[in-house]
Amino acid sequence: MELLREILHPEFLLRNSVYVSLLIGFVVPLFGIFLVMRRMVFLGVALPHISACGIALALSMHVWFGDYDAMHGANERVLALVGSIAFAGAALVILAALERKSQGGTEGRIGAAYVIATATSILLLAKCPQAERGWLSLLKGEIIAVMDEDLWLGGCSFAVLTALLLLFRKELLLVSYDRALAVVLGKRVILWDILLFGLIGLSISISVLIVGPLITFGFMLIPPMTARLFAHSMRQLAFIASMIGGAGALAGFCAAYHWDLPIGPTHVAALAAVYLVCVGGKAAFRLIRRPVGDSS
Amino acid sequence: MSDDAVIKLSDLAIGYDRRALASGLSLELKRGAFIGLLGSNGSGKTTLIKTLLGIIPPVAGSFVARSPSGEKLQIGYVPQRETLDPVYLFSASEVVQMGLYGEFGPLRRLKAEARERVAKALDRVGAAGFSHRRFSELSGGQMQRVLIARALVSHPELLVLDEPTAGIDADAAKAVGELLAELHKKGGITILMVNHELHWMRQLATELIWLRDGEVVQGGVDELLSPERIEQMLQLQMS
Q1: Which residue, A12, A187, A205, B57, has most beta carbons within 10 Å?
Q2: d(CA A280, CA A296)
Q3: Inter-chain contact A168–B106, Cβ cutoff 8 Å?
Q4: Which of A39, A180, A233 sits opposite B89 (nearest CB)?
Q5: What is the pLDDT of residue A67?
Q6: Which residues in chain A are closer than 8 Å to B106, comparing Cβ atoms?
Q7: Of the candidates A184, A213, A281, which has an alpha carbon nearest to the alpha carbon of residue A53?
């Protein structure tokens, strides 16, 4: 309790890290639900890394253009944001176009995109030690030094993205669940898909820029998977996933601070622990409730 | 297009990726009819339905779907239930509500009157008792009733069903068949139904469309389902 009070104190040195963890924890699972429901979990793995590759390219451009100050000066965050959004957006457009053109092979393409993006990031940053250090700490989920600007960027962006997701929830769920019905009802399915994947792409890009791909991926997928074990409706699924994300973020931060561990991996470990406890608990509950003599 | 037709096909070719599965389809679907759509696997039955619904574009030719007032034809669609992913946590009632999303555009919430329509549609198909249960946990027959309620909730002039009795037990299939017969006779709805089982066609349909070898044959039930004609059609398909 004392630890919690210390962490949540307004004067706490790492308060921005706490706030950003809670923000990502509560909000990112809401976008992840659509990836889990549409059975596009692989995309949730690959997109953060592709987005991170965009950041790596933005940060290493001075190696070719020679203007170190322009790349690592005041514009660094803007460049990184542009790189992150551009790469995530381009990846979504290319993968969607390939999906429409040919049947099957999606997993292979996403897997290839993931490994190529990660390798490219490492190669791009090999000649710039400063960017490499920053990018590696982002990759490991080190979010100790979150700047005020990043906190504001995350807060405002996610407020808009979440509002859009909730406002158009009805249509986004319809085109995800039954595209044929959406067409029959006169909905412009492609436009709704663009909106949905635009929201997912932007949420991933901003999250990766602030906390890195590891935390983004963890919060995007593990809370919805855990919530799916208990939820009885889509509304409950969204609420429980968001609560698990928020609670996991707080628990992960407390554990990381108490035992001096890197924050990102601790967040993911906390979420994984919640998931395993829930799976085990649900299995045990079923076992207890099973009538005597039922061997099924 | 004659006044008593809901859909008119003019030299229509259907298929995917510009490759025609069937071509030269020219016919009319009469208002108030119960039309059975027959054909072997891969003959293009579902493709024809998807084309008429606007889900895929025609490869060539055209079709007109119009209500008597000249407005866009209101269509209710009942897909094969396997196409709906059970991972989504929708209740039966929520699935039926989706049938109203065409009327309730973005940013508009469903009002009490809409909820009443959903309840009435569920009641009409005998699904009121399980309206709050999760759709993916219902039996095949119950799911089919819910999907029919979803199609009916928007008061369609044409009801299109893709194999509504496939994969469900005999009692449930009988109940679905009786429900469709009642909707056609008492509700006066035009129905277009894909079905493999000839006995359902005999029992329910007033006319038939038979897709074979990329061509179409249209006629009365007695005419197309006479033993000689069935033999002829099957031999043609096997040859």
Answers
A1: A205
A2: 18
A3: yes
A4: A233
A5: 62
A6: 167-168, 170-171
A7: A213
Residue A101 has pLDDT above 70, yes or no: no
> Best mutation site among B72, B87, B143 for testing chain A: the one with the most A CBs within 10 Å?
B87
Mean predicted confidence (pLDDT) in B202-231: 83
| Residue keyed to tokens 């053109």 | A101
Residues 6+ apart with CB under 8 A from A29: A219, A220, A223, A224, A227, A241, A242, A244, A245
CATH no. for B1-74+158-239: 3.40.50.300
**CA–CA min distance A237, chain B (Å):** 8
Percent of chain A past pLDDT 90, that is, above it, reads 46
Tokens for A168, please give them.
């158009």
Considering only the beta carbons, identify the residue of A36, A183, A236 that sits closest to B55. A183
Instruction: Read off the pLDDT of residues B111-154 as tens digits, 9 standing for 90 and up.
Output: 889 999 999 999 999 999 999 999 999 999 999 999 999 999 99
How far is the alpha carbon of B154 from chain A, nearest alpha carbon, in Å? 10
Question: Domain limits of chain B?
Answer: 1-74+158-239, 90-156
Confidence at residue B1, expressed as pLDDT on a 0 to 100 scale: 63
Class of the A2-289 domain? mainly alpha
Chain B residues with CB under 8 Å of A167 CB are 106-107
Distance of CA A151 to the CA centre of its chain: 16
Confidence class for position A7, pLDDT limits 50, 70, 90: confident
Q: Which residues of B touch A232 (CB under 8 A)?
A: 89, 134
Domain boundaries, chain A: 2-289
Instruction: Tokens for A61, please give them.
Output: 């451009």
CA–CA gap between residue A225 and residue A229 (Å, rounded): 7
A295: pLDDT strictly greater than 70: no
ipTM exceeding 0.85, yes/no: yes
Using an 8 Å Cβ cutoff, are A72 and A130 in contact?
Answer: yes
Contact B85/A184, CB-based, under 8 Å? Answer: no
Interface check for B114 against chain A (CB to CB < 8 A): the answer is no
Mutation pick from B75, B77, B111 vs chain A, by most beta carbons of A within 10 Å, is B77
pLDDT of residue B106: 84
Q: Is B101 on the interface with A (CB under 8 A)?
A: yes
Could you tell me the two tokens for B162?
């893709």
- Tell whether B87 is within 8 A of chain A (Cβ): yes
